Amino acid sequence: MKVVLIKTPKFLSVLLRVLFKIDKVQEEN
């Protein structure tokens, strides 16, 4: 569990970054 908790923030940050990029692209189109 500790390993998962440590790795989760990085995973979430990457997911948020990707989602943010997708949202930006959709807004521009």
TrEMBL record:
Q: Which domain of life is it from?
A: Bacteria
Can you say what this protein is called?
Stage V sporulation protein SpoVM
Q: Which gene encodes it?
A: spoVM
